[in-house]
Amino acid sequence: MITFEIFQDRFALQETFIISRGSKDAAQVISLKLGDGEHIGRGECVPYARYKETPESVVEQLVAIAPDVKSGLTRDDLQTALLPGAARNALDCALWDLEAKQQGKRVWELAGLDEPEAVTTAFTLSLNTPDIMRVSAEKNAHRPLLKLKLGGEDDFERLEAVREGAPGADIIVDANEGWDASTWLALQEPLKHLGVSLIEQPLPANDDDALMNNDRLVPVCADESCHITSDLEKLAGRYDFVNIKLDKTGGLTEALKLRKEAIQLGFGIMTGCMIGSSLAMAPAILLAQGAEYTDLDGPLLLAEDRKEKLQYHGSIVFPAKPELWG
């Protein structure tokens, strides 16, 4: 009989994090602990209001499926037992972790992957005034890749300020669906001129036809538009990259499938995250192997991480040790 424990954890942020649709001062996460009497498997997810998730709704889903897990629900069973989303992510990753510990192997071995290596992550600057974003850029100018949250008035001024503060950094901009087609078209040339490498989800997920009908001077990455493998067909011609996040795919199992299919279809890969602890980032490091862009900076934004945590050396993040996950 598998034991099943649910925890609601809160991690304060170092500073208020702002995007086009709101702000937060803490990461509210749900974590799971599965046990067989000898081994423990853990997973973490971040409920996201954009996808109509709350901590309460995620806990409700997990409580409902707990009897099936205790009776032997497998990862394969899980893919149809729960819809993609945060709840399935936490459970899927906990099942991977438990199975790895039971077999005395690492998750990457069970998944048939190469041993993971350290990767370089973007560091995110939240949406703010140009002056404040310039100061943030100056503080992080040593980082090779910065990701800017945009999606409001004065976005070009914000970008100019960041470029002044960090003249040597590569830059990704993320509008979080905050632009319309005319704004995106007007900003393409200036963004290219300022050396922006990638634009993440400039238009709303249900209103992105303009991406198909106009030249994309800077590559565009689907975030809110891409959750699972079956989404890829509708993205062709609109997007150049897809951002794979475990909380969207509903766990590592579907995420690995999505990555494989996306590569076969010619999409570039970005591995992203919600703001969570090292436990949420650990499985995503497996996805980040070989990805053109990695955005797994969640723990760098926290005031305090878990006791067992990932190692970050500047913007380089190292694979998890078994004590944390996998």
Comma- or semicolon-separated keywords:
14 strands; 8-stranded parallel sheet; globular; 326 residues; 35% helix
Question: How would you explain this protein's 3D organization?
Answer:
Helix 1 packs parallel to helix 3 and helix 5 packs parallel to helix 6 (155-165). The strands form three sheets. The protein has an eight-stranded parallel β-sheet. The longest helix has 18 residues, at 86-103. It has 326 residues and is of the alpha/beta class. Strand 2 (22-35) and strand 3 form a beta hairpin. It is built from twelve helices and 14 strands.
List the helices and strands and how they pair.
Layout: E1 3-19, E2 22-35, E3 40-45, H1 55-70, H2 75-81, H3 86-103, H4 107-110, E4 119-120, E5 123-125, H5 130-139, E6 145-149, H6 155-165, E7 170-174, H7 181-193, E8 196-200, H8 210-213, E9 220-222, H9 232-235, E10 241-244, H10 246-249, H11 252-264, E11 268-271, H12 278-288, E12 293-294, E13 312-313, E14 316-317
Parallel strand pairs: 5-6, 6-7, 7-8, 8-9, 9-10, 10-11, 11-12
Antiparallel strand pairs: 1-2, 2-3, 4-14, 13-14
Rg over CA atoms: 19 Å
Low-confidence stretches: none
Helix content: 25-40%
Q: Quick check: average pLDDT?
A: 96
- Determine the N-to-C terminus distance: 21 Å
Seen as an oligomer or otherwise, the chain set is single chain
Give a quick account of the main beta sheet: strands, pairing sense, barrel closure.
Answer: 8 strands, parallel
Helical/strand content category = alpha/beta
SSE pattern, N- to C-terminal: EEEHHHHEEHEHEHEHEHEHHEHEEE
Count of individual helical segments: 12
Shape designation: globular
- Please report which band the strand proportion falls in: under 5%, 5-15%, 15-25%, 25-35%, 35-45% or over 45%: 15-25%
Q: Reading side by side through the largest sheet, how are the strands ordered?
A: 5-6-7-8-9-10-11-12
The total count of strands amounts to 14
